[in-house]
Amino acid sequence: MPRTMGLDVGTKTVGVALSDELGWTAQGVETVRRRPGRPDDEVFERLKEIADQNDVTAIVVGLPKNMNGSIGPSGEACQLFAKETEEKLKLPVKMWDERLTTAAAERTLISADVSRKKRKSVIDKMAAALILQGYLDSVK
């Protein structure tokens, strides 16, 4: 069954989430490390592996907007990453407003009493899951 992949793109990592086979729920699966100042070839290679192994047919990339709706430098970087993802993985990519998803992920982990060190390792894939879940809920 086809799945959708969600990405939370940061300067150091890319959080990855996948939908279930029915497209109802999103689950964080992995955090892929980026190497600042170097091409993202390894990142795209890993994303392609995940996409191929899970029959991914579409990708949703979080678009960080400012609170007034404008797009700043990090939003522009995400748009560029999304365009490159579409070209390299040959899959349709949609942008999804991700305002406050990382903050929401952080609050959830804190309320679950997850240690700071552990939070750091799971926050990106959890944010990716929140981005993807928002998208899945909107298309139902």
UniProtKB/TrEMBL annotation:
<feature type="domain" description="YqgF/RNase H-like">
    <location>
        <begin position="2"/>
        <end position="105"/>
    </location>
</feature>
<comment type="similarity">
    <text>Belongs to the YqgF HJR family.</text>
</comment>
<dbReference type="InterPro" id="IPR005227">
    <property type="entry name" value="YqgF"/>
</dbReference>
<protein>
    <recommendedName>
        <fullName>Putative pre-16S rRNA nuclease</fullName>
        <ecNumber>3.1.-.-</ecNumber>
    </recommendedName>
</protein>
<keyword id="KW-0540">Nuclease</keyword>
<dbReference type="Pfam" id="PF03652">
    <property type="entry name" value="RuvX"/>
</dbReference>
<keyword id="KW-0690">Ribosome biogenesis</keyword>
<dbReference type="InterPro" id="IPR006641">
    <property type="entry name" value="YqgF/RNaseH-like_dom"/>
</dbReference>
<dbReference type="InterPro" id="IPR012337">
    <property type="entry name" value="RNaseH-like_sf"/>
</dbReference>
<keyword id="KW-0378">Hydrolase</keyword>
<dbReference type="InterPro" id="IPR037027">
    <property type="entry name" value="YqgF/RNaseH-like_dom_sf"/>
</dbReference>
<keyword id="KW-0963">Cytoplasm</keyword>
<comment type="function">
    <text>Could be a nuclease involved in processing of the 5'-end of pre-16S rRNA.</text>
</comment>
